[in-house]
Specification:
This protein is an all-alpha fold.
């Protein structure tokens, strides 16, 4: 039987690996080591899936773990984007409008979060998880296949845009910082139940 403290360190250790790997991934891009870069990027995405699975299996959740996971995810995605720009810069020029919209949503979401909570969000909604899966699949396909898969790109953009919009709405609705929020539907349902209870 694995002790709870061991499980906690295992889950957060995987997240810390992902966080530490991000600057190394950027260094590989700078030195043109794209073959090693894509395999280590795959490993980072796998650790994201594994630590999420272990956290759910062992019921290990904490504000620290949720925040660390969000930061590690953002750093991994940033490293992948840097790789995309260096390897296939014209792709960004062709798709500047959807990329610009996502960037604007991301900046707006973070500005609102810092104004309201003094920190970035870690809602980890179902929509955010779906968007993360779409991002991982598209990014890995981008580096492992000879050309970008455009339908994957537009699925990823759509899910990410809806996720960021949902998070913006959640920030406006939730006065206190929360982690592991299922989504807007569940927040509205809980709010409706609370209003329906007798005073």
């Amino acid at each position: 039987m694995i002790a709870r403290s061991t499980k906690f360190y295992l889950v957060n250790g995987l997240t810390m690996y992902r966080l530490g790997a991000a600057p190394f991934l950027v260094a590989l891009v700078v030195f043109g080591q794209f073959n090693l870069f894509k395999w280590l990027l795959l490993l980072s995405f796998l650790t994201d899936a594994i630590d999420g699975y272990l956290a759910r299996k062992y019921k290990i959740t904490s504000i620290f773990g949720a925040r660390l996971d969000s930061i590690a995810d953002d750093c991994t995605i940033l490293a992948a984007i840097i790789g995309m720009v260096v390897l296939h810069g014209l792709f960004f020029l062709y798709e500047i409008i959807p990329v610009g919209i996502l960037f604007a949503f991301y900046i707006a979401e973070n500005i609102l979060a810092f104004r309201r909570y003094k920190r970035p969000t870690s809602f980890h909604t179902y929509l955010a998880k779906a968007a993360a899966v779409a991002q991982g699949i598209f990014l890995l396909a981008f580096f492992f296949l000879p050309y970008p898969v455009y339908w994957l790109f537009f699925v990823m953009v759509s899910l990410t845009a809806f996720d960021l919009l949902e998070e913006i709405i959640l920030i406006l609705m939730l006065p206190d910082y929360r982690t592991n929020v299922k989504g807007l539907y569940w927040v509205l349902r809980r709010k409706k139940k609370g209003q329906g209870q007798p005073g």
